[in-house]
Amino acid sequence: MIYFVTSNEGKYREVLAIAKKYGLEFEWMKEKYVEIQGKDLEEIARKSAEILSEKMKDKKFFLEDSGLFIEALNGFPGPYSSYVFETIGNEGIIKLMKGVKNRKAYFKAVIAYWDGKEIRTFTGIVEGEISDEIRGSYGFGFDPIFLYSGRTFAEMREEKNEVSHRRRALEKFFEWLNA
Ligand code: ITT
Question: Is 6 helix (H, G, I), strand (E, B) or coil?
Answer without folding.
Answer: coil
